[in-house]
């Protein structure tokens, strides 16, 4: 038996505000349903005593329901079609007929719905009945539960939401043909005709095309250049999938990162795989002439590097002849270094892991461990956790926590006879050494986990410190330390050599450091040879600046200012090119004179005093504020500061296992795979991104 809800508000009933006496008069019952005759809705005994006074019910709802007595003083309304019962009356309390009308009107009666669809008829009610006015009620005010608006069924909207659901949650397209899902949807809304695999695939591609058009308009309006990242995913079918992302600063001086393409590469190990993906992306998004740099997720062989540089020199000849190629992803480089370091001391790490597992796999042992910690008054706030060996940050945090709790482990060794093979004092010393040299790698990787996309200058300081510390430790007389850090230093040196030039020119664009930090750090790393390395950076940034001075008209500072909403005076093209003579010499003259003036713009910036170092300094915001003072240099700075150092999303920064395309997606058409993955990235960024104001914080000097 269904229990009546004691709360009348939950049943959308009218309730007197002054008192809670039951509704007894026929006039008050008519307020619930003016069409119904409520003489039968009085107490059953009264109805039985006065059968001759019963009036015929006028409401259409009684053509579809009958009243059944289910107990003493309790009656329920039963649907003639589906036999489902609803509350009607309990004692003197009457539920009314609104909920019965909704059962018919909204198509929730499956039997009635099938009959109507078979006969091509509509439901008796197109919408829930409206309440009559209370103006005639005798000095009594009523309240009702929040009304639910009547929403008409929209099959197209349902298809759209199914496509979004599949995209956002990586559900297989074939789920729309799974019997369990089909049954669920049919019970939820019988009028919805479940779509097929081909239909939902088309809906997902249509969603992709709509979102792509929005991104295309954003890219077309970018005043500067665009930097690309390439992340190659292998698959069990020996086919590769190249994830191509673009990073840029928009007209509002905000950094954006968008996944642009997922390109299937039949021969991912070939020397042309990466260059082919870049060319395909540029063609797809009409970005010829806008490419600035390329960052790759793995080291390339010489032939592949030559192919990539050749492409850059053709597609982007005005930017250092295509030399802005970052050959290593910072996150993957750090993961490889940590993985090699952990492998070199595998026995030590395994011993610590076994000790942590001994404590964490038993509630009683964990409680005892905490009790001993409290008795020893160990100040550490760390908690033990078994690491996930596919994510190196969890291994580092496990080692760090265990190291801080080594006193508790030592005491556990003496009080618990089942705890065996405990780490020795020398083991704990080596663990502390390992954590000391993993910490700067961990801190650097954490910079990439921030919600806002970090600018390139943020990583120079971290990179040169790691390079210096590992180089010093590799020459240590401590055999454990030198063995550990030598392999780490060799691996990081590969990243440093391929990326230090770009990191250096990025930090020059930071008014807190400029070329001074490059000179200081290189003197620490290269010693007497530092001047030659500093000169490479100085010459490179001056050469790049001159190329910006000579940019085509469509990329001049005046064009960038126009994109920011500022007016640019222009003459009629017909008047400018009316005779076609003499303008070439005039353009050369303008270029030469502008070059002399703009050349001093960079020198003026470098010669000015450094800004005080402050917390949360917004370097892009500083260039926005100073764009009129440095019209050309500010444009170049935005392009440099948007060079990405990482090719993977934040969720994969600490992965030690390379991402691989799953077999299901490999079975789909390449166009469908691209549509699903790219659209998910765009929809997620719409949720995450929020409008923020760009400002420079200068209140807290370091």
TrEMBL record:
Listed SUPFAM superfamilies: beta-beta-alpha zinc fingers, Ribonuclease H-like
Top-rank lineage group of the source organism: Eukaryota
Domain BED-type: start-end pairs: 56-116
Pfam families: Dimer_Tnp_hAT (PF05699), hAT-like_RNase-H (PF14372)
Keywords: DNA-binding, Metal-binding, Nucleus, Transcription, Transcription regulation, Zinc, Zinc-finger
Any GO MF annotation of the entry: DNA binding
GO cellular component, one term: nucleus
A GO BP annotation: post-embryonic development
Record localization: Nucleus
Subunit structure: Homodimer.
This protein's name: Zinc finger BED domain-containing protein DAYSLEEPER
Species name: Salvia divinorum (Maria pastora)
